[in-house]
Amino acid sequence: MTQITNKNRTANDWDSIVIGSGLGGLVTASQLASKGAKVLVLEQYKIPGGSGGSFKRKGFTFDVGASMIFGFGKKGYTNLLTRALSDVGQDCQTIPDPTQLTYHLPNQLEISVDRDYQKFITKLIDLFPHEEKGIKHFYETCWDVFNCLDSMPLLSIEDPGYLMKVFFKSPLSCLGLARWLPVNAGDVARKHIKDPNLLKFIDIECFCWSVMPANLTPMINAGMVFSDRHYGGINYPKGGVGIIAEKLVKGIEKFGGEIRYKSRVKRIIFKEGKAIGVSLENEEDIFGKTIVSNATRWNTFGGQGINEPLVEANHTPASETKWGERYIPSPSFTSLHLGVNQESIPSGTHCHHLILDKWEDMEDEQGVTFLSIPTLLDESLSPSGSHIVHAFTPSSMNSWEGLSNKEYLQKKKETGDKLISKLEKLFPNLSQNILHKEIGSPRTHERFLARNKGSYGPIPSMRLPGLLTMPFNTTKIEGLYCVGDSCFPGQGLNAVAFSGYACAHIIGRKLGMNKWELPE
User: Fold this and answer.
1) Running DSSP on this structure, what letter comes out for residue 352?
2) Is the Cβ–Cβ distance between 42 and 20 less than 8 Å?
3) Which of 109, 279, 288, 380 could form a disulfide with 17 if both were Cys (CB 3.0 to 4.6 A apart)?
């Protein structure tokens, strides 16, 4: 890439500068690169991926966030991670998981979600035989939503020309999706189901990936997840979740793009109200035709305690202030990464688990415990004779602020011990079989992932109509775009991959790089 540099000022001909190398930012960058755009990705940390990354310790490869991955199917249009990698000449070897998740719930309610849809539905009906009709109605409605999504290429719905082409290709699917845009999953569940315990199960089904109960979870998202886990399935990338980001980076570089690590963006540069570049902490200025923020909406525009957002207050659109009234940061997580002796995990154990002792604790601090044991799928992630145990529980930054260093370390230890105690309900000999232990707090997530309060993403501050209030990729500022879980359609790797596709498409239209025909 040709650059003309004057001390701390860099002029170049970047088509797009992407701030952050989370999966949304990397999909945006890789899609633009595949269209022929000159792309620069700026990452404040030393590895890519954000919460979709991995780190290594003493022979163990730990996933930063969840290891329950959607989007690696082999057919249809909803396998967005597969497609994103393929578009830049990359692929990931994946290992199919026969079970999405095993729930350990109050009143000894235990159920595993099999890859086989009929097995799962049969199990659920056996537990709630009086709700057979309601169960079938709800989950078949999810399939209706999914089939609409899977029948068309998923690009930006901000582009009228694209929407018209898709409508002519799949008119019924478009009308079907429009019907479900303002609807939440809880609306559908409560229409067909009356048993309060089954409705609580639907709530935890949503909460396990959206960190929201069903009445706040958009039906579009629920339809995608509750069906794709059986259609494309849960497929773990061999080598760890971080391999996805590493492969996307290779694809970006293969197509002439560049990624720079340890490059923290301090602010976005404006000229006559238009975003034209970024200024780094080292005072270097870099300029481009378009700027993409993969930071959270709060880190980008302010609010929720962010003192120095990327966009200075005099440039912040009123629409972003309105968004900040509708959405708040979800809790962060306290994470426990363990390397353990192999004998502490019984053979036949499933990879992913969710533990909830009391229904009323679901949305409370450390109420739900998530657990993954990815070495049950990929033995290469740990030394021979050992397993990885990754547990995490929702935790608010508020409970970690104002602590002295001694108090902070003590709280981390106590929280880690509490998590281990919960895990020992499933694996009684765990504590005496620990080979390596690391504990991360919301402060850890904020520091290394540069996310406001370490948040997992935005959640509604009130009941909202489905996805209709979620912002898209364009902003009210010319030249500035957003991508990631603060944009339509929300949280999850496959969702932010969709956001990346959409962002690259709308920028590609602006730059005149999009193909006329729809993707195959």
Assistant:
1) E
2) yes
3) 288
Residue 116: alpha-carbon gap to chain centroid: 24
What are the tens digits of pLDDT across the range 37-47?
A: 999 999 999 99
Paired sense of beta strands 274-280 and 285-293, if any: antiparallel
> What six digits make up the tokens of 483?
């991508």
Torsion of CA 46, 247, 499, 487, to 10 degrees: -20
Asked if the model's pLDDT at residue 2 lies above 70, the reply is no
- Which 8-state DSSP code applies to residue 12? E
Distance of CA 311 to the CA centre of its chain: 24
Residue 218 bridge partners (DSSP): 184
**C-alpha 260 chain-centroid distance:** 22
Residue type (1 letter), 139: Y
Which residue type sits at 192?
H
CA proximity to 473, closest of 297, 253, 349: 297
- Predicted confidence band of residue 4 (pLDDT cuts 50, 70, 90): very low
Q: Do β-strands 458-460 and 434-440 pair in parallel, antiparallel, or remain unpaired? A: unpaired
Using alpha carbons only, give the angle 11, 16, 19 rounded to the nearest 5 degrees: 95
Gap between the Cα atoms of 310 and 297, Å rounded? 10
Per DSSP, 173 falls in state H
Q: Provide mean pLDDT across the span 198-206.
A: 97
Residue 333 one-letter amino acid: F
pLDDT digits (tens, 9 = 90+) for 102-146: 999 999 999 999 999 999 999 999 999 999 999 999 999 999 999
Residue 135 near residue 125 (C-beta atoms within 8 A): yes
- 8 Å CB contact between 242 and 63: yes
Average of per-residue pLDDT across 175-203: 92
Q: How far is CA 381 from CA 58, 436, 493, in A?
A: 11, 14, 21
Nearest Cα to 72, choosing from 88, 93, 87? 93
Tokens read off for 214:
């069903």
Helices 196-210, 132-150: axis angle to 10 degrees equals: 30
Can you read off the two tokens belonging to residue 403?
A: 């602590």
Residue labelled with tokens 């899609």: 31
Q: Taking residues 266-281, report their average pLDDT.
A: 96
- Both tokens of 505, joined, read 């498409």
What 8-state DSSP symbol labels residue 402?
T
Other CB atoms within 10 A of residue 355 CB: 20
Which residue in this structure is represented by tokens 């570049």? 277
**How far is the C-alpha of 490 from the C-alpha of 297, rounded, in Å?**
12
Distance CA 222, CA 201 (A): 14
DSSP string, 92-147: --EEEESEEEEEEETTTEEEEEESSHHHHHHHHHHHSGGGHHHHHHHHHHHHHHHH
Q: Residue 277's closest CA among 31, 3, 9? A: 9
